[in-house]
Write a structure and sequence with these properties.
By secondary structure, the chain is an alpha+beta fold. The chain has three domains: 3-82; 87-205 and 291-344, no CATH class; 215-288. 35% of the residues lie in helices and 25% in strands. Strands 5, 6, 7, 8, 9, 10 and 11 form a seven-stranded mixed beta sheet that branches. Strands 1-2-3-4 form a four-stranded mixed beta sheet, with helices on one face. The protein has a two-stranded antiparallel ribbon with strand order 12-13.
């Protein structure tokens, strides 16, 4: 039985259908009304999953099922929102290791240029990690689709994207699915609400999508530059030829010469209009539209060694927590309250000791005074200028066509 056939069998049975495998590549299905409506099947149907080889024959009235066509959309309709939010506890098969030198672990994990820290203690517990899956679609003159993942430790607030690349293969090696018990959920602490997830995920989504489509964007820009240069060369040649004829007629006299000058001047204006129109066509053809869709969320409960760390900045003190993951033998990045949080360098603000990326304590664009983007997310406290976020806009500027 193929993977697709096994998936369809499980999906149909979970939705109340009676499924019988007639041979290695066919299913006989007795469907309830919901399955009939979602998949467009009769009450009784035969589904085929492999193209018959030489000498093989399909049963009469067998409906071929494959990855092509609209079968994936039909299955998605039947799935609806089932499985889009799930919970799983990751269990270790062996005894969990402990960090031999906690001070050394923190030395590698913490980089605080404007503050000092002190190790307070370590506790074995569970962390609630939120793994979000997104699908992006980038459409221009061509199309590109893909998936990407974002990870957060909601127990400490840290971004764990760097650990996901190692954590996801580990999940695939553990086929047994175990839901967390009540004690594990309580130890992991409360989860994030929708608003908190959106505020943390949105800037990371923007950055991740930009990184994912960067090769596609470079190829598109090369094609755009090629077409723009071709359009410019063609119209510039026409403009150059008309300008030379107009220059030759500049000293001629008489009604015929005047008519020729008017005709060439009108031709030059027409060439300029056509050139602008062609550029508008290129803008339309190469306009980039990117859509991002949430696909799935997984609340993953993992065993961790939790460090309590005291942060000091001038006369202020604050205790933060940082998790070391025994299954990966790696520490996560520290909490980041302003910025993407993917690097390990953090600056500490003076007022409330927020941990931010260096850009989170950057200077105001108007007055030049540094300020914390967590304490003052909207405006600079000194001059009142808006704290603008960085945006990237690209346009197609016409080059001058001239002789």
């Amino acid at each position: 039985m193929s993977d697709l056939q096994a998936f369809v069998t499980d999906l149909l049975e979970r939705n109340g259908a009676v499924v019988e495998s007639t041979d290695a590549r066919e299913l006989a299905v007795l469907s309830p009304p919901l399955v009939q409506k979602s998949l467009g099947l009769a009450e009784f149907a035969r589904l085929g999953f492999e193209t018959p080889g030489f000498g093989a024959e399909r049963s009469p009235d067998t409906i071929p099922v494959g990855l092509e066509g609209d079968w994936m959309e039909r299955f998605a309709t039947l799935l609806d929102d089932k499985g889009r939010w799930s919970r799983r506890e990751l269990l270790a098969t062996n005894e969990l290791p402990t960090p031999g030198d906690p001070q050394q672990v923190l030395d590698r994990a913490l980089d605080l240029p404007n503050a000092i820290w002190r190790f307070l203690g370590i506790t074995q517990t569970h962390a609630r990690c939120l793994v979000l899956t997104f699908r992006y679609t980038a459409v221009s003159d061509e199309k590109r689709e893909g998936l990407f993942w974002l990870g957060f430790n909601t127990s400490t607030g840290a971004v764990i994207n760097d650990l996901l690349a190692r954590l996801r293969p580990l999940l695939a090696q553990m086929p047994a699915w175990r839901s967390p018990d009540e004690a594990t959920v309580l130890a992991a602490g409360p989860g994030w609400n929708t608003a908190a997830i959106e505020s943390r995920a949105r800037p990371l989504i923007d950055r991740q999508v930009r990184e994912e489509i960067e090769p596609f964007l470079r190829a598109m820009q090369r094609r755009l530059a090629r077409d723009r240069d071709r359009v410019h060369a063609y119209h510039n040649g026409l403009h150059h030829a008309s300008s030379r004829r107009l220059a030759a007629l500049s000293h001629a006299k008489g009604e015929r010469a005047e008519a020729d000058r008017r005709r060439e001047a009108m031709r030059i204006e027409a060439i300029a209009r056509e050139y602008r129109a062609k550029l508008d066509d290129l803008r339309h053809n190469y306009a980039l539209h990117v859509t991002v869709e949430w696909v799935q969320a997984l609340e993953l409960y993992v065993p961790v060694q939790r460090f309590d760390v005291l942060i000091r900045r001038r006369k202020g003190e604050r205790v933060i927590q940082l998790d070391w993951h025994p299954l990966l033998k790696a520490a996560e990045a520290p909490l980041c309250e302003a910025g993407h949080g993917r690097d390990r360098v953090r600056l500490v603000c003076d007022e409330k000791l927020h941990l931010t990326e260096p850009s989170g304590l950057g200077p105001c664009a108007a007055c030049g005074r540094p300020f914390c983007r967590v304490c003052y997310p909207a405006t600079c406290p000194r001059c009142g200028s808006a704290a603008l976020s960085c945006t990237v806009t690209e346009g197609l500027k016409p080059r001058r066509i001239a002789s």
